[in-house]
């Protein structure tokens, strides 16, 4: 398939009244496929498949029936629905059971669970990153695949009910019914725009205080920055904690195990502030420990999803090791 794709790059245009380039749609298609599947790796593959299918079918495209964008989303939606057949949803630990009350519990990863992955903002344009909040994407994963498609196409991307019906090969009445059921199922999840932007001055101030406290392994200072019912979860470890007390006790354990003198690098993921946490090494320098995706609301950290999967590190292009003296925080 890759050879076909390379061969079609020079002709990656739909020909009707004039050439139309597919590439401007790549970023938004990537964000759409990610919302549908909860996996950045799989989303990349499906976008590639979508564009290849579009190129192969370019002579059959009819501009009188749909815009290029609507046509591409029909191909992408069908590709996603096919990929989701027989699949279990991608959860976060908080979606699988009750919180732990033991900060010393064994940190045993559940490698058989297809965990939700974060979305690297740097791999997409700003407009496509809208409405990618991690907790919202996790909530959407509980929906049946077709309801999920209707919700994202209608609520996030703004397609009309008639356009979505065309994309899914169904009726407007069926689309409206699916949307109503999806909204009811997610009534408690909050809207995708519920979290303030990571470059909001208030959010940045909280994150920078969190960084300074984490680098100093100052647990009391970190706890002061937490919401009372703050959530900490750590895929692929299925454990999660709720409340600033247990969150703080777990951080005490981390610093006891890994030492002090951490280094943090700021970035963004899912349109939220994120931190690459580098633990100190006995021989000098720092080694990448986790990627932390923060939700900041009301001037407090309300949620921290901590990823330790090396595959996630690779997607974000994070160096695994930083020699002594080479660390330059991105602030």
Describe the protein.
A hairpin with a 3-residue loop joins strand 1 and strand 2 (19-21). 41% of the residues lie in helices and 18% in strands. The protein contains 12 helices and 9 strands. The protein has helices at residues 2-8, 26-37, 40-56, 68-84, 134-140, 145-156, 161-168, 172-185, 201-215, 219-224, 244-258, 310-315, and strands spanning 13-15, 19-21, 226-234, 237-242, 263-269, 272-280, 286-297, 300-307, 321-322. It is of the alpha+beta class and 331 residues long. Residues 1-17 have low confidence and may be disordered. Helix 3 (40-56) packs across helix 4, helix 6 (145-156) packs across helix 8 and helix 7 packs across helix 8 (172-185). It is elongated and about 65 Å long. The strands form 2 sheets. Strands 3, 4, 5, 6, 7, 8 and 9 form a 7-stranded mixed sheet that branches. A two-stranded antiparallel ribbon has the order 1-2.
